[in-house]
Amino acid sequence: MPKKLVTIILICVFVICGMHPCVKAENRRHDLRHGKLPRIMTAEERIEKAKMQKLAALYRLLVPPSVRINSPAEFENQEGILIRWDYGWTDFEDMYCDMIDAIQDVAKVYILYGNASQKTYVEGVLTARSVPLTNIEWIRGVTDSIWARDYGPFPIYKEDTTRAITDFLYYPGRPNDDAVPGVLTSLWSWDIYEENLYFEGGNFMSDGYGVCFVTDSVLSANPGLSTQEIKDIYWDYCGCHTTHILKSLFGTIGHIDMHIKLLDVDTVLIGQVAPSDPNYDNMEYAVNYFSKLTASNGNPYEILRVPMLSGFRTYTNSLLVNNLALVPTYTEPEDTAVLGVYTAAGFTAVPIESSAIIPLSGATHCITHEIPPPCSPPAVPSGVTASIAGDNMIEISWTPTGAPGYYIYRSTTDCSTNMNLFATAHSSPYIDSNVSVGITYYYTICSVDSCLSGLSTCVSETATGYCLIKPEFDGVTSVTNVHDTVCSLKLQWSPATNICGTAIVYNIYRSEDPDFIPSRSNLIAACIDDTEYLDWSFLEYKHQYFYIVRAEDNSGSARGNCGCGNEDDNMVMLDGVPTKLGSIGTYFEDFESGINGWQTKPAGLWHLVNNSTCVSPYNGYHSPTHSWYFGQDSACDYDTGSVVYGSLLSPIIPGITSTSKLSFFYYRHVEPPGYWADETTVEVSKDGGRSWQSVWSKSSNNRSPDIWISSGDISLVDFAGKNILLRFTFNSYDEYDNDYPGWLIDDVTVTNAEVSGPCDTGSPIPVFENAIFLFFILGVTFSVFLVIRKET
């Protein structure tokens, strides 16, 4: 062989295999994903999200319906199914043809298309595969992606029985998708109600009776809104009088349809994985959650389980349409048993082979959306009466209409003012036990069966018994780090207004869990006759504690913690982190002295390394010699044969200021540009990890140079005055092209933040230490406040 040829061959081998493990040819799947927008929000879209939300507020009306509304359930009768063909690609044509063929037997198929040639092409494909065109309606509308579930309409029924659409914000890089609800309302002459909540249809389930389910991914998508504000939006725009927020899955889009499915008003399908799976706890959390709920028809939920296969191959991402279940299948042995579960639940189960589409984070449910039929309202309840059923009890009864549910509205003013929904019922009578002596209550009722009936005749009754009106209290207003030698936090609040008693006291609740609910188990101080409280009981240095303060009167007619008074039920929660006196300075972590409070959750492939050789010829660190590495030391890649993901969490970083900036150094070598996967994201939480805001994000479309580089300064102005957590997340989103070194992190810096020394853990404070409690239970008039603290 000539010497020149040998040299060329050696150079080629070095280029392909030299600085990282040789590329595995059988691991390539770029043809599937190239040019397709995934169901997830891409790294580029995450960065533009906040900017788009502010811009949208300038041109969207943001006026909710002024009448009563309700969201129909997916398992109820449907007029048709909206779908968007994957134009320009043939990967999914078998799947589309099978779905359209099956749906046409029971409902109309609405197909979105952008131009005449697209329509002609699809008609040709369907005809060639003997799929009839008899029950198809074509809707012209340019789109950016196939995910009709997420950008499609949120249909609602209005009280006048007309249909309307709620339009939430969709991903900022897909304006044509975001415009689809407007296209439909113009075509069908429906009303449209716009709201600037970032929210996708795959993260929404309604039971048809005002009970809705979402996951906590909506909190992270909208960091400027509180949990209650988001629930209020669902009530105003979707008619959800109750919204349950469940835990999302790690490593996928976070939508509820990836692991939970309502099959009926009292039947729920939940995915199942092995105990070793990072998502095991979150799926079992859902099982436990539903096991404690009562469905809208008064029954406990029947919980059915189906497996979730590797690569997030889900069986809950099915489409239900008029007793038909189009179930994603994957040519696996589990397919048969899963189809049997749907059949046993009363559906005709149709398998839809979905192996090709699932790497894009969705299946049959994600590319479709139900269009409900015109509403036929149930009868208006008649024979409504209200009568005394005992002390602090009013019985409301009516002649049943045959509807499966009823809404009960109540006012303390009159029959036409402030008449608000306060209870739901599935049968007559209903006992209202939340009434107070001497107050006249006005009631009216409607029937609920997907849509709402008109309101019944208004009736009224005056309650007997005891005064049970809770104090008016705005909750805790500040939690301040005292910076003492002993770890201490100072709580303050404004005085409450007494209604029933002659005095007020306060109770304090605390926890390290930001999702805690005030109870005797987390009550740390009771009967506080003041508007501030200094807490040092078992507080530990740099732990994050959450507090709720509640007011209690001295009426003695309820079950309050201090003398059985009426305690208010506010959920205002503030947090604090105790440290010793320090100064504004720089938080810096180079990982040379160990983990130092950093943790992995879920770990994935994150681990602390000492001068990793996987970035040769460069150092395996930015500053000698340790760094965090997402990858495998043995192979110098993140190829496990499946989707890989994991998060690295910082300890709490207190005292962020308006001039604080985050920076870090990283080495990042992932699959080639042109594809949306292999996402590396940095997020910040200001509420103990309940929600996260993305501040830095790159996918494989943003290829980094194969050297250690700086992230640059990232402003933390949005978190000024808060105590924060940082989260570094790697997510491959698929099992393809994972044979690159991965991601290394070093030298994390936060400037202009609080730098303090350690404080000492304080001794316990008795819950009822305040002597005023003794006077209270002896009947002496005074005010008592309860404070609840939560620690994380």
Describe this structure in words.
The protein is α+β, with helices and mostly antiparallel strands and 792 residues long. It folds into four domains: 305 residues, L-arginine/glycine Amidinotransferase, Chain A; 81 residues, Immunoglobulins (Immunoglobulin-like, Sandwich); 136 residues, Immunoglobulins (Immunoglobulin-like); 172 residues, Jelly Rolls. It has 13 helices and 45 strands. The strands form eleven sheets. Strands 33, 35, 36, 38, 41, 42 and 44 form a seven-stranded antiparallel sheet that branches. A hairpin with a 2-residue loop joins β18 and β19. The longest helix is centred in the N-terminal third of the chain and has 17 residues. The chain is flat. The termini are far apart. The relative contact order is 0.11. The N terminus and C terminus are likely disordered.
Q: What is the element layout, followed by pairings?
A:
Layout: H1 3-17, H2 30-33, H3 43-59, E1 69-70, E2 80-84, H4 93-103, E3 108-113, H5 116-128, E4 136-140, H6 148-151, E5 154-158, E6 163-169, H7 175-178, H8 180-188, E7 191-198, E8 205-206, E9 211-215, H9 217-221, H10 227-238, E10 242-246, E11 260-264, E12 267-272, H11 280-291, E13 302-307, E14 319-321, E15 324-329, H12 334-344, E16 348-353, E17 368-371, E18 382-390, E19 393-399, E20 405-411, E21 420-425, E22 430-432, E23 440-449, E24 451-452, E25 459-462, E26 476-481, E27 489-493, E28 504-511, E29 523-528, E30 532-535, E31 545-553, E32 574-576, E33 583-589, E34 599-600, E35 606-610, E36 626-630, E37 645-649, E38 661-669, E39 679-685, E40 693-698, E41 709-710, E42 714-715, E43 725-731, E44 742-755, H13 772-777, E45 784-791
Parallel strand pairs: 2-3, 3-4, 6-7, 9-10, 12-13, 15-16, 28-45
Antiparallel strand pairs: 1-5, 2-17, 5-6, 8-9, 11-12, 14-15, 18-19, 19-22, 20-21, 20-23, 23-24, 23-25, 26-27, 27-30, 28-29, 28-31, 29-45, 31-45, 33-44, 34-37, 35-36, 36-44, 37-43, 38-41, 38-42, 38-44, 39-40, 39-43
